[in-house]
Amino acid sequence: MSTNTYSPIHVIGGGLAGSEAAWQIASAGVPVVLHEMRGVRGTDAHKTDGLAELVCSNSFRSDDATANAVGVIHAEMRLAGSLIMASADRNQVPAGGALAVDRDGFSDAVTAAIQNHPLITVVREEVQGLPPREWDLAVIATGPLTSPSLAAAIQAETGEDHLAFFDAIAPIVHRDSIDMDICWYQSRYDKVGPGGTGKDYINCPLDEEQYNAFIDALIAGDTVGFKEWEGTPYFDGCLPIEVMAERGRETLRHGPMKPMGLTNAHNPTVKPYAVVQLRQDNALGTLYNMVGFQTKLKYGAQAEIFRMIPGLQNAEFARLGGLHRNTYIHSPILLDKTLTLKSRPGLRFAGQITGCEGYVESAAIGLLAGRFAAAERKGEALSAPPATTALGSLLGHITGGHLVSDDEPGKRSFQPMNVNFGLFPDLEPGSIVKPEGVKRFRGKDKTIMKRQLLSARALKDCASWLGRN
Ligand SMILES: Cc1cc2nc3c(=O)[nH]c(=O)nc-3n(C[C@H](O)[C@H](O)[C@H](O)COP(=O)(O)OP(=O)(O)OC[C@H]3O[C@@H](n4cnc5c(N)ncnc54)[C@H](O)[C@@H]3O)c2cc1C
């Protein structure tokens, strides 16, 4: 069959995700119309009209595919013929173990490849509402700064509670880095709640001296300011913890750090002065978020200050906290496993608007949305990538891996997420074994081996998903 017999798929937004989605669709032999508003209307952060403009840092983060989840997703995307990765590789600048790029060279390479592809037509226009019904297959990839009229249309379709304009991110900790000789499992007042056991939270106890030192550190910590166009998005129930600490030394002890209804299982006769609670964040139970700890502290300050909390002294963070202008939908409720809006068959979402975070992750979700859309147009079945791959674990998190919390204000517990090993299913029991000839095999060595095994498994499973082995 000639490729031109397919009617086009419309991709809205020519950023990291939309460019990758368009490329994947065209590479499958299906025509694409890519609608990008820059050139006609700008955003508050973009400075050029180039496709896939990097709005801030020029780094794609670690390129280590042997033991880093970001490096693994790079490698999987390269295997899948990613335009974003090929353009990054061709425009690399020295950055140690990271993949950093010449931002203009990178964006120029993506723009040229898209514009020169015979199956892709680029239209410079703002799409102001949901795609018309005659665009039977479409992908919305308009990013964190989706134009207001399209955002309003998405909100009308999904419901007010299911589109956020700011994220309010509390740090997420790898469960296996929490010291359970200090912490204990308990829900406040042992409440069982829907789906709970009465032991759903991990609790970290602080005595008065530790609490005061923690508050001093919070108040002294360096913070990131808001950009002028972001405004100051503080709303009830969602103040950064350092702002709460500044409002009064006892504020946190009467808020997210209140000790009431909790008994330290390791020391039941001594009431903690304050308690930090962590709640399970993903269905796998590998990640826990710090309840109520959204923050504007700089990343370096966060890691240092949060490791002052007893039990978190060796905490490994899957994600640090933040508060940014960011348009994103409540994907675990709204999207099916192929990124299609359940209420509008044929309409997919891709990129940061789905609740992933970062250039690479946005492009990765664009890659998947593009492949799913092309397969649908061609009447082919396309299974989702296995959960053991970086692509599959990120997709799984967005479309259902996150646990929705019943007890947080606003019920907006789904927050943007980077790819990290906490999203991967665990290894088979007994996979981590001391290598022959090695005398001391410490916790750190086991962690490195675990990451290596997870990486190798992911790459092997991704290759088989793509029919490459
Ligand atoms: C200020 C800021 C700083 C950031 N810094 C970093 C960083 O350092 N590192 C990192 O990894 N991530 C960073 N991010 C996140 C980054 O934006 C995303 O990771 C990435 O660009 C998202 O890719 P995307 O394709 O989803 O969205 P984008 O790359 O933003 O692409 C969306 C595109 O859609 C277009 N568009 C919007 N509305 C419409 C419409 N109605 N019709 C047609 N076109 C439309 C936009 O013009 C844009 O080109 C930052 C985000 C912001 C806002």
In this entry the ligands are:
flavin-adenine dinucleotide
Q: Give the helix proportion (percent range).
A: 25-40%
Radius of gyration: 23 Å
Multimer state: single chain
Strand content: 5-15%
The average pLDDT score comes to 92
Number of helices: 12
Order of helices and strands: EHEEHHEEHEEHEEEEHHEEHEEHEHHH
Question: Which blocks of ≥5 consecutive residues have pLDDT under 50?
Answer: none
Spatially, the strands of the biggest sheet line up as 10-11-12-13-9-14
Instruction: Please provide the count of β strands.
Output: 16
Shape: globular
The assigned structural class equals alpha/beta
The main pleated sheet reads as: 6 strands, antiparallel
**What distance lies between the first and last C-alpha atoms, to the nearest angstrom?**
27 Å
Secondary-structure map with pairings?
Elements: E1 9-12, H1 16-27, E2 32-36, E3 59-62, H2 69-79, H3 83-90, E4 92-93, E5 98-101, H4 103-116, E6 120-124, E7 138-140, H5 148-158, E8 163-169, E9 172-174, E10 184-185, E11 201-206, H6 208-220, H7 241-246, E12 274-280, E13 287-290, H8 299-306, E14 317-319, E15 322-329, H9 331-334, E16 347-349, H10 359-378, H11 390-401, H12 443-465
Parallel strand pairs: 1-2, 1-7, 2-6, 7-16
Antiparallel strand pairs: 3-5, 4-5, 8-15, 9-13, 9-14, 10-11, 11-12, 12-13
Helix pairs in contact: 1-10, 2-10, 2-12, 3-4
This protein binds flavin-adenine dinucleotide.
Residues 12-18, 35-38, 43, 45-46, 55-57, 126-127, 141-147, 150, 351-353, 358-359, 362 line the site of flavin-adenine dinucleotide.
Describe what this molecule looks like in 3D.
By secondary structure, the chain is an alpha/beta fold. Helices cover 30% and strands 15% of the residues. The protein contains 12 helices and 16 strands. It has helices spanning 16-27, 69-79, 83-90, 103-116, 148-158, 208-220, 241-246, 299-306, 331-334, 359-378, 390-401, 443-465; strands at 9-12, 32-36, 59-62, 92-93, 98-101, 120-124, 138-140, 163-169, 172-174, 184-185, 201-206, 274-280, 287-290, 317-319, 322-329, 347-349. The strands form 4 sheets. Strands 10-11-12-13-9-14 form a 6-stranded antiparallel beta sheet. The protein has a 5-stranded parallel beta sheet with strand order 6-2-1-7-16, covered by helices on one side. Strands 3-5-4 form a 3-stranded antiparallel beta sheet. A hairpin with a 6-residue loop joins β12 (274-280) and β13. α2 runs parallel beside α10. The structure holds flavin-adenine dinucleotide. Flavin-adenine dinucleotide binds next to α1, β2 and α10. It is found in: Cytoplasm.
